[in-house]
Design goal:
It contains 14 helices and 13 strands. It is of the alpha/beta class. This is Hydroxyacylglutathione hydrolase.
């Protein structure tokens, strides 16, 4: 079982200190590959004996599923994405107990935690526990379902070839998704906002609503065993305070407070929604405390900058973790990033307008491209600058110039597409943030295959 700071390796700590200041997740390609390979240890497929009668199946899909063995039955915490992956995990867990399933608990409503319940429930349906507001995780953005699905596939690298994949930051790269959600069973026992204490199969269980990644999240506390199940409010990576697939605002302040509340229980064993469980009171409390502080610090710095009149672009390049947290392996930006969080906090609190009248009614992309080309001395010179940026491995600038060239009637749109593909792959090779890396590579493949429109929508 992983116990804390030594699990990812000295290389990662040194790289974080040297390369991640200012929210950068770009390093040399060989370093990025080594970092992501090391993070893969966090979800290698196995059953972990957390403590007596508590077992967690890691790596059978993207999330974890756990089994608590009671006197006359077992309790299942989270159920993976679909029945096939859940069945494989349950078979592995059954090596430790064949007692009937007395209850299933959903820590929140994301599909990778709820979609495989039928594999555990069997013919006799046990009680299914969830919060009273269960199901609100994606409701606010349901209307944007088609584009969210497309962007989600890019974020998770679902269509990447085996040679292009590494992992998903807090999950394996390749998972069985063909039966996603087909094993979901609606909850029939609702946990009120003030929480619930009960006994299931002889095990005392406490349910504590704790909004964070979702508003319907909760954590579980086993007071006798000193085990805390954190759901997706904690895992071994900087939290995904904003998902690039597209989400409604995740209340960052609530998230920080919920994790701080977990630390107050002083767990001896900490089971995240993804990645390896943690053993040891001192380690678990330190990790939760640092996690809460990191989230709160990003929030506070962003709000301070907002109130000073700074916009999201400036703040995304200025806000950083406090120095004493930058060398914590469980806060490396494998999944979420500080810049993404900053932008989400800004939009969540103030909306899209940054307060600068220049951006109140900005030029459309085609008009702006024409003016940039004129400023460069014409389309040919702008195109030359685009090509030079690629040769110089100034990949972000090459992307931005390619997006201008594509709008120009006299621009070489095919050349711009070629440059953008190469620049995206250059960025992907240097990314240790898995969602960014997967998105860059996936978008490059879509451009190359012709799956996107002439204007790359």
């Amino acid at each position: 079982m992983h116990t804390g700071s030594g699990t990812v390796g000295l290389l990662l700590v040194m790289t974080l200190a040297g390369a991640a200041a200012g929210g950068e997740t770009q390093v040399e390609p060989e370093v990025a590959s080594k970092m992501l390979a090391s993070q893969t240890e966090q979800f290698e497929q196995q059953v972990v004996e957390v403590t007596d009668n508590v077992y967690t199946a890691v790596g059978f899909h993207g999330a974890n599923t756990s089994m608590i063995v009671g006197t006359d039955g077992v309790i299942i915490v989270d159920t993976l994405f679909g029945p096939s992956s859940a069945a494989r995990a349950f078979e592995a867990l059954r090596a430790y107990s064949d007692k009937p399933v007395k209850a299933i608990i959903y820590t929140h409503s994301h599909g990778d935690h709820t979609g495989g319940a039928t594999a555990f429930a069997g013919d006799k349906r046990p009680d299914i526990y969830a919060t009273e507001n269960f199901g609100v995780a994606e409701g606010a953005t349901a209307a944007a379902g088609p584009i969210k699905a497309r962007r989600g596939s890019r974020q998770f690298g679902r269509n990447l070839s085996p040679s292009e994949t590494t992992n998903r930051g807090v999950a394996p790269a390749n998972t069985a998704d063909h039966d996603r959600g087909k094993g979901f069973i609606p909850p029939n026992v609702r946990v009120p906002p003030e929480g619930l204490k009960t006994t299931i199969a002889g095990v005392d269980v406490e349910f504590h609503p704790a909004p964070g990644e979702t508003d319907d999240a909760m954590f579980l506390w086993l007071p006798d065993e000193k085990v805390l199940f954190a759901g997706d409010n904690f895992y071994h990576a900087f939290p995904n305070l904003y998902a690039i697939r597209g989400t409604a605002y995740r209340n960052v302040l609530n998230w920080s407070e919920s994790v701080a509340k977990m630390a107050e229980f002083r767990p001896h064993f900490l089971v995240p929604g993804h990645t390896m469980p943690v053993r040891g009171e001192e380690t678990a409390v330190a990790m939760l405390s640092d996690y809460s502080e990191a989230i709160r610090s990003v929030y506070d710095q962003t709000v301070q900058g907002m109130n000073e009149g700074k916009g999201p672009d400036q703040l995304a390049h200025e806000v950083d973790l406090p120095e004493h947290l930058r060398d914590k392996p469980y806060l490396i930006e494998f999944y979420g990033t500080v810049p993404h969080a900053v932008r989400a906090i800004y939009a969540g609190l103030l909306g899209w307008f940054d307060g600068n009248p220049t951006t109140l009614n900005p030029l459309g992309p085609k008009v702006k491209a024409q003016k940039v080309a004129a400023l460069a001395g014409g389309t040919r010179k702008l195109t030359a600058q685009m090509q030079a940026a690629l040769v110089q491995e100034d990949y972000q600038w090459a992307l931005e110039l390619a997006d201008h060239v594509k709008w120009l009637e006299d621009g070489d749109r095919e050349l711009a597409r070629t440059v953008k593909i190469a620049a995206l792959r250059g960025l992907a090779a240097r990314e240790y943030n898995a969602p960014n890396r997967n998105y860059y590579q996936s978008y490059a493949n879509e451009l190359e295959s012709g799956a996107l429109s002439e204007l790359w929508h």
